[in-house]
Amino acid sequence: MSARRITDRIWLVGSGTDPQAGTDPHDCHAYLLDGGTEAALVDCGTGLAHERLLANIEDTGCLDRLTTILVTHYHADHAGGAAALRAATGAEVRAAPEAVTALAAADEYTTQVAAARTAGIYPADYRLPGCADARPITGGTVLRVGGATVEVHDAPGHCDGHLCLLADIGGERALFSGDAVFAEGRVSIQPIPDCRPHAYARTCRALAELAPDALLPGHGAMAPTGGARHLDQARDHFARLTVPPNLGA
Ligand SMILES: [Zn+2]
């Protein structure tokens, strides 16, 4: 098991599917952004294999410089590892206000962990680990991670409090899209109370404007180059008042 380099300054350090960087089958893709003097983790996996994730971060040489843990949204496959990784590294956890509140309360209803467990998506004994001291970020916030900047974009639709993160390092722009948009313009619409197709369409329109070089989603294929094309596909589907294909469909 080892980290997998995706671009010059970005590594895959956790995944449910990647043969090299895989951590736990229930985990999303977790990325490490190397900003030089500082580094940031984007998404945390479930926490079921946080030690493997830490080992992968160590493998990048960035563990001692990890200052920030960014969480795209409060679903457990992205946010469940936040508490353990914060405890192990001291890095600060940043997420949308909705996610900060839900994680502080280990709220398994708002985050749909209870429903997902019943559906067999998570092991029967899995519980969402609470994270008491995450700090809120919202659209328009610009964070510095060493020599990189990370622009925060509100991206509701898949769930409330979903953020997408646009990193710029040396002019190379990568969009961490969480569960908002995947390769080939796929989306993730689920029958849950805070999945909102109309907001999803607006989100996809706004994300396409960003035209990043790399599209790095929370699941499935990654696009280290030509990322904009995938965002255009999702935008164009919604513009025709049709729903883009779902992830895994
Ligand atoms: Zn999700």
UniProtKB/TrEMBL annotation:
Main location: periplasm
Cited Pfam families: Lactamase_B
Annotated GO biological process: antibiotic catabolic process; response to antibiotic
Sequence ranges assigned to domain Metallo-beta-lactamase in this UniProt record: 27-219
Endpoints of the signal sequence: none
Subunit-structure text: Monomer.
Name of the protein in question: beta-lactamase
Organism name: Murinocardiopsis flavida
